[in-house]
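Subject: for your reference before the review

Hello V.,

The reviewers asked for a structural picture of the protein, and I figured it would be easier to keep everything in one thread rather than splitting it across files. Below is the amino acid sequence we used in the manuscript, unchanged from the supplementary table.
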Amino acid sequence: MSGLSILVICFASVTLYVGIYHLLSYFRMRDRRENLAFALMCFTVVFYDFFSAALYDAGSVARGAVWQKWQAIALCGMGIFLLKFVSEFTRRKSRLWDYVFSLYWMVNVLILWLDRSYMEWSGQGSVKDVKLFKGFSVTYYEVEPGLLMKILSATAV
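And here is what came back from the structure prediction:
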């Protein structure tokens, strides 16, 4: 396990503690529903951190793509719970836009969950070598975009 993975797991343990604290606060004061939303957001951050630690220890690009997909799913969940937290904290009356944005993120989660293009490495574009500062070189793999990027780029036009 790399040093960066250990550092991220330490951050995850702190976030887990904060999430448990707010969950217990919600159980003591049921009318403070923002504590529950904040606790759920903290738990998705913990999942994101664990997926980040696994990504940092991935030995290949193919393994890294799997963990990066799970990171994106955790980020969608974090967006849903952050929106829920802000709505509860500000005591917003109309929740129509909350449902619209939550539905958008849930569609992204569904697409990411069902998309298996990250396992197909036949569409790999090229291997890029970038040289910086006379001798420091970085190699990265440029991959053809998956289904979600194709959908998002088609709707952006």
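For the response letter, the relevant points are probably these. Residues 32 and 47 are 24 Å apart (CA to CA). The longest strand covers residues 124-132.

Happy to draft the paragraph if you're swamped.

O.
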